[in-house]
Structures are given as structure tokens and as C-alpha cells.
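Thread: quick sanity check before group meeting

JM: Hey all, I'm pulling together slides for Thursday and realized we never actually wrote out the predicted structure for the chain we discussed last week. Dropping the sequence here so it's in one place. If anyone has concerns about the input, flag it before I start.
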Amino acid sequence: MNGDGVRCMVMRGGTSKGAFFLAADLPAEPAARDDLLLRIMGSPDPRQIDGLGGAQPVTSKVAVVAPSVEPDTDVDYLFLQIGIDTPMVSDRQTCGNLLAAVGQFAVERGLVTPRDGHTSVRIRLVNTGGLAVSTFATPAGHVDYTGNTAIAGVPGTAAAVTLEFANTEGSTCGSLLPTGRLVDEIDGIEVTCIDNGMPVVIARAADLGLTGYEPPGDLGADAALADRIQALRTQAGKLMGLGNVADTSVPKTTLVAAPHAGGALCTRTFIPIRPHPAIGVLGAVSVATAALLDGAVGNELLSPPPDGRPLAIEHPSGSLEVDVELDRNVSPPRVRRSTVIRTARPLFDGATFPRP
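JM (edit): ok, ran it. Output follows.
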């Protein structure tokens, strides 16, 4: 703490934006920490007008970073999803988009010494126990956020950040296919429940009477669709061993359709029932993994590139390229690694003043 303010850096990571804190700058006791973060972000309030939150799930996020307590890792990253119109702070998932800025934040705060050229930071995902390696430009030992890499959903260009994931298979549910089946049926809808870093329920958009190409605004205005999405995910949550998920943000639900913009698969994702303007990084990793499994929902819609390039997962803002390497010598296949390219940059560094 610094007076009445709390040291904070606001950063964009991928297509998300969040408040980044050192763990040492927040209360150690979770209840006190969560109360403080709700006041910092301006929740509960649908506009979050009295805090840092941007009134959308993708802008109501917090990253808490600390020196790692585990061997062979550099920093620990705890992700917290902050409720907007409810006083909720959830650690039941991680965020692969904010992850794109964690390594740079660790360098900026002196937790990691950068190399000349590029620096790789080994990050333990506290929420799931997974491991990610973030590699980014550090010419002359300083983080360089400028570059010519563009990602869908973010204006302009910035320096590329390579995120390579390991140990994400079953990170929340304990197995890649938490129900033990490739396909389940819920309310007459075929779904694939998968967890490769993010628990996701995948259904065909056509099975819900949709094209899968609708704008998020149209989907968000469909109250009947929201009820169906909630019914799917709450029943799937029990099948996936997550218990009662009615008031949580996981599992995510993703509707899939054949690609229509030159990609590999088209998606529409909900958090938990609000349409996502793009798609989460680890959500895209899980969806891409399912699409590669013969017989899974969406596999028949996949149009993979002929030259082995990463899968371009289409979403409302563009596409996200995901490279998933599977070991097909076992059944079901095991995930060897997953890789995505993101960008990130700092937006503000200083002190934030929580609502009293």
C-alpha cells in the first residue's frame, strides 16, 4: 500500500485488459483481498463507473503476480475474474489473454532479469497448476512493446508474444475429456466437454437453430438463447465434475460452425451467458483440441490448413491461430503442447484508489 492508493499497472494482454498487482501489494487474506479488488474495479455496478472495470467480462480482470514458490518456474500468476453487477471474485479459471502480459509485468517489477534480445519467463498458472512459457522482445535488456504483429480484436500492431503451454490437459477437471466420452447429449443437443486449459462445452450452432456467424449483439439480445446456454453449461458442469456452476464463469460454452473467412473453424463463445467479442486464448486452445479429435462435436466442420500450419479459429473479431500437438499413439490422444501468438502493452502505471 502507498497511502490510500494501491500500486497497480493496467495492461492489455491479448484481447483482454486488466489490473496487474504484485501479491505483496495486496492483502494476503483472500477475503480482504477480494473486498479490496471489488472496490478497485467498481463492482457491483453494471457500468463499474466508480472503478477501473470496463463493464465487460474481458475488461473486468485482475492478475496477481509473485515470485514462484515452485522449482523450474520464475513467477506465479493468479487470475481473478471480477463480477460486474455482482460482488463476485472467481479464481475457478485462468486467463490466457492476460497471461500475454504477465512476463513483461514481472520484468517491469524486477521479479525477472531480462536478457538482451528475447526473454522467456516460466509462469506457473496458480488457478490450474499448468505451466506457460512467455517469450517476448527485450533488446538491450528492456521490454519492447512495439512491433508489427496484429491480432484480431485489437487495433494497430505490437510486439509478438509467444505463449507455449504445458500440463494444461485436464487442468481444472482432471482429464482432457472430463465426462469420459467424446460426445454427450444434453437436452437433445450433442456436446463435447473438454478441458485443455479451459473447461469448455462445445455444441454445433446449427443444433441451436443458429448459423454460428451471428454478431455478438444479436446473440446477446436473444433471451431464449441465454436460457439454453445456461441450461447446457449447468448440466455439463455436473457431468464434468465441477458441481453447481450456475453462478460461476466456467465452463465456457462455444458454438461452432464451418469456417466462413478462410480459417479452420468458426466460433461463438459465451462467458458464461454473455457473448464474447472474440474468444479466450485457452478457450480457443480447448476448442482447437476438440476439433482435432475424430468424432468430437465440430471435428466434421474443421477445415485444417493443408501445410500443417496452426489452426485459425474464427471468432467475431477475426481469428486466433492455435498450434496443438497431439500424441495419437494413445487413446484418447494426449496433448504434447499448445502454442499461440499474442501481443500486450502497458496502459497505465501508478496507484489506484479504491472506493471507500
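AS: nice. The domain at 184-331 is CATH 3.10.310.10 (Diaminopimelate Epimerase; Chain A, domain 1). The chain has a mean pLDDT of 95.
JM: adding both to the slides.
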